Amino acid sequence: MRITIGSDPTRLIDQAADAVEALVRATPDAVLGIATGSTPEPLYAELTSRVQRGLDLSRLRITCLDEYVGLSADHPQSYRHYIRTHVLEPWGIDSATAVLPAGDAADPDAAARDFERRIRDWGGVDLQILGVGPNGHIAFNEPGSSFDSRTRAVELTASTRQANARFFEHLDEVPTRAISQGIGTILESRHALLLAFGEGKAPAIGALVEGTASPEVPVSALQRHADLDVYVDDAAASHLQR
Ligand code: F6R
Fold this sequence. Notes:
single chain; alpha/beta; 7-stranded parallel sheet; 3-stranded antiparallel sheet; 7 helices; 10 strands; 17% strand; globular; binds fructose -6-phosphate
């Protein structure tokens, strides 16, 4: 694990964008795993401005970590909508080269298995962008998730629904379930890049960097990742002792 701590989030975002750019220059049709949520939005915006300055991201193959169960692809809070507006359209990527879970499928478990199979058919993820929940979740692997877990339909905890209520008008509208890549699936990504900003993420970053790996803090599973870069600001690093 390599950890970069910085006081200037813009500089951290630039470094993360450099990692994506280096991947694309080496492998134009690499598989890039997108995290949704607010943390990586500036990274996608920085990559969009590099596209406007001539960087070609259009051959990337795109996948994601998770999707709410019950939201249609055009629901403004669905992760498919997020990826279309923050990634596919601005980077000129055909939606046919995006593997995203069908959150509105009649059988979410079958949709989860199909999502995992399609990622495997691509040969896995070259670079996975990750955020972390205040409760330590990665994707929607909530505390207690097995480190061997595969992509499946999961229940969201009350704290995650509360944390994500800011994107919806009412807490009642936040879905109760999601399709999530498993921790075992995420650990198979060839390279992962985790971003965390703000004091709310400090306990999770402390557990990842200095804690004992435990399913109670899912992000700590990333201690076992073969090639992980962590970019955090001073606030998110504030629980680190060493
Ligand atoms: C989203 C995802 C989640 C988020 C996490 C942090 O695809 O997998 O694990 O990364 O909930 O969300 P933000 O960045 O909004 O704080």
